[in-house]
């Protein structure tokens, strides 16, 4: 009886200490980050292309009052006046800095005039692995597309005359199942048509990438009670994905968001982009800048874009 009491007392004090440490950590938690810069990187170092420029550039804001996660996609060809480069060049330039994240933060805050709390860099390989972790995703394409000039990975691996430089990839309208086998083709293709509406150009690719993120996000939410999957996603994010997140950030976000995960809504805010400065906030000026095809805003201080983002976050 005495041994049982001592064992019980030991377990009680162990539980008390663990609970004390847990609640101490909660009380000392920083406020969760709510403003994020998400960069999609497709690093290439082959015969056809050598680049570390970012294809996908997203500013994301998490509202903890109504649990809305708003995404603003910026076209990679938007001109960054202070450095005289496209914004897709900011990431590779940041690698030359002593503090890459600070470099990225300062420059993109100039573009959007919103705080950037944390930065995430997701590569094409990361997308493959994330899609594999969730068991693939199904998404619906209003308009299918065919790209006859998609870089042939067989040629890249073995560049001989008998292997075509390009291959044809196709995704039909309707439902498509994406896995690690076809995800790269889906997000990278940009020569499938002359217009974004038909799936071609960088704008068409951005819309597909947004659609992919939306469906990936929805798939994760649908698995909210799958603790094994949530843990695997957390582990992958923490150990494999480049970011400025700390352990305290992860814990604070989890504590504040996970109980409300089912209520969390993803909202894609589309910035008017095109070739008409009268209606498009970001537009092509019908001329080259520094011999480059670019997008610009009405003013070099991005004030019209600042106002648009600010107003979009009010509701």
TrEMBL record:
Ranges in coiled-coil conformation: none
Domain Cell envelope-related transcriptional attenuator: 54-221
PANTHER family hit by this protein: POLYISOPRENYL-TEICHOIC ACID--PEPTIDOGLYCAN TEICHOIC ACID TRANSFERASE TAGU
Family designation: Belongs to the LytR/CpsA/Psr (LCP) family.
Protein's name according to its UniProt entry: Cell envelope-related transcriptional attenuator domain-containing protein
Organism of this sequence: Candidatus Shapirobacteria bacterium CG06_land_8_20_14_3_00_40_12
